[in-house]
Write a structure and sequence with these properties.
The structure holds two protein chains of two kinds.
Chain A (H helix, E strand, L loop, with lengths): L3 E12 L2 E12 L3 E5 L6 H9 L3 E9 L2 E2 L5 H7 L1 E4 L11 H6 L9 H7 L1 H5 L10 H13 L5 E5 L7 H18 L2 E5 L3 H7 L2 E6 L2 E7 H6 L1 H19 L1
Chain B lengths: L1 H32 L6 H17 L4 H22 L9 H23 L15 E4 L2 E4 H23 L1 H11 L1 H6 L4 H27 L5 H16 L4 H21 L7 H12 L9
Antiparallel strand pairs in B: 1-2
Helix pairs in contact in B: 1-5, 1-6, 1-8, 1-9, 1-10, 2-3, 2-4, 2-8, 2-9, 3-8, 5-6, 6-8, 9-10, 10-11
Classes of the chains: A alpha/beta, B mainly alpha.
Chain lengths: 243, 286
């Protein structure tokens, strides 16, 4: 059993007065991978924001390699090795592609040439401004930017959302390669349930801020009736958006 | 016919450069942290009084300039770390009340220590002369002012565009939360930027004495011009501030020369028309 990288214990968190996450507990081992599934608005993004330290934690604890990080500032969590790919990509528009990659880079295996090898399209656009990219390129840049901080854990918030099928394939393959080759742990929030389950080893389904179902991706893939019940609507919604 | 026009352009340009030095810091900090710092003019005044005091002790004019920059920068970062950072998440109104209160205190403090009269500035003789080119007189001091402002602009744009720190500043202006999420220490980046911006205001204050004089009202007189420059240029944009400052400087000089009845009012007309044309400023993004 690999060592525990991140552990959440009965975390309740939200924004201001409202509590979105209602008692989440989960553990992720070094190099592990976890798909976070569920309908829109159940708290998947809030979970990632809570791990980053951008929400108000009401109770519960969060540990990183055994150390309590509940009160650690977001930029320090990033420096501890948590890489964050935000849902809206949030590319820095007034930085070039290459500056987006170097602005927060930390020394390690993922340097600029390495992420260009993973996403060759970005190399072609290195001098473009961050705002002048297609949706797929922005997503690649968001992932590449998080990688240059050389994280031990990558939080991916719907990286495939709204992208053309061919780009989805390309990105999913890159994410898979990154996990396999580098042993980077991943928490993957995704609407494309099938892709998410095929990429991650384990999965949880969130409903109304709590974990409704957890298990290995393989068993969950086989449990179609539970998936339909908990996220069924979402599959069609995601499909509609994909077109 | 040509000579007065060139003279007006030159004076206006020099005045614009001064406005740029005074305002660029506020533009960057407003754009970056959405922090409404109406005490910005006070840091300019601090620089001006530092220069006057040191000259009173017999320091040469040039030696006082880096001190004006340093003292204004250090004092501002002291306020930033202790007071301002507490209201970053507060409403605009609370920020305005705090900083305008500080501006009033600074005016009263200046009046207490230095009196309300105009402060003398003793420039070296060679700065008080004129260079004549094609029959037109150019004030050496204004040429010096333009040179300093251009050098500062060059350094600033270079630092912001070509260093990693500059990229972090731009990233924090673009999206503070994302910058933090990637490990950028936005607080420290902001404190340094704030100190630099206030330091430049202090330098601008010291350079302004010869052109516009210095008394405790300096804070508020120039706060207004600084806010106009920032609004017209667009928040967070150095190029915008530069262009706006030059436009306003030239239109102010032209207004006073060609339409004396309108006088200093022209600058407001220019502001209103530019903002009607581009409500978020020349280079504004929001």
């Amino acid at each position: 059993m690999a060592e525990t990288l991140l552990a959440l214990d009965d975390v309740r968190a939200g924004y201001g007065e409202s509590v979105v996450l209602d008692g989440i507990s989960l553990e992720l081992a070094e190099g592990g991978s976890l798909a976070v599934l569920g309908r829109n608005g159940v708290g998947k993004t809030t979970l990632l924001l809570t791990i980053m330290g951008f929400t108000r934690v009401v109770s519960g604890s969060m540990r990183w390699r055994g150390r309590d990080i509940g009160r650690v500032a977001p930029h320090r969590r990033a420096r501890l090795g948590i890489g964050w790919v935000a849902q809206e990509r949030e590319i820095f528009a007034s930085l070039t592609v290459e500056e987006n990659l170097t602005v927060a880079a930390r020394a390690g295996r993922w340097d600029v040439p390495a992420v260009y090898r993973l996403f060759p399209r970005l190399a072609e656009r290195r001098r473009n401004m961050g705002s002048h990219l297609s949706g797929g390129e922005q997503q690649m840049l968001a992932i590449a930017r998080a990688l240059t901080t050389n994280p031990a854990l990558l939080l991916l918030d719907e990286p495939l959302e709204g992208l053309a099928p061919i780009i989805v394939e390309e990105l999913a393959e890159a994410i898979g390669r990154m996990m396999a080759e580098e042993g980077t742990a991943v928490v993957l929030v995704e609407q494309h349930t099938d892709v998410a389950l095929s990429l991650a080893r384990d999965a949880v389904v969130i409903e109304r801020g709590a974990i409704a179902l957890r298990g290995s991706s393989r068993t969950m893939m086989a449990d179609q009736s539970s998936l339909d019940r908990l996220i069924g609507l979402n599959l069609t919604a995601a499909d509609d958006r994909g077109r | 016919m040509i000579a007065p026009a060139v003279g007006v352009l030159f004076d206006g340009f020099a005045y614009g450069m001064l406005l740029f030095l005074l305002s660029v810091g506020l533009s960057v900090t407003l754009g970056m942290m959405n922090f409404v710092n109406l005490a910005h003019g006070s840091f300019a005044m601090v620089g001006a009084y530092v220069a006057v005091s040191l000259m009173g002790l017999g320091w040469p004019f040039f030696a006082t300039l880096p001190c004006a920059f340093l003292v204004a920068g250090v004092i501002s970062v002291g306020f930033e770390r202790t007071l301002f950072r507490r209201v970053y998440r507060a409403s605009d109104l609370q920020q305005v009340l705090l900083t305008i209160g500080l501006a009033f205190i600074s005016v009263a403090a200046a009046a207490w220590f230095y009196g309300t009269m105009q402060q003398p500035v003793r420039l070296p003789v060679y700065l008080r002369t004129y260079a004549t080119f094609m029959g037109i007189n150019f004030s050496i001091y204004r040429l010096f002012l333009i040179a300093v402002a251009l050098a500062v602009t060059g350094l600033l744009v270079g630092a912001l565009d070509y260093t990693r720190f500059g990229a972090q500043v731009r990233a924090a202006v673009d999206n503070q939360r994302m910058a933090q999420g990637l490990g950028v220490d936005v607080d420290t980046v902001f404190a340094i930027t704030f100190a630099l911006g206030s330091g430049l205001a202090g330098l601008g204050g010291a350079l302004a004495i010869e052109i516009v004089g210095l008394d405790p009202n300096f804070t508020f007189t120039y706060l207004i011009y600084v806010l106009i420059v920032v609004a017209v240029g667009g928040l967070g944009s150095i190029r915008g501030s530069l262009l706006a400052a030059i436009l306003l400087g030239v239109s102010d000089a032209a207004g006073k020369y060609y339409v004396p009845t309108l006088g200093a009012f022209l600058i407001y007309l220019v502001m209103v028309s530019l903002l009607l044309w581009r409500p978020s400023g020349l280079f504004g993004r929001r």
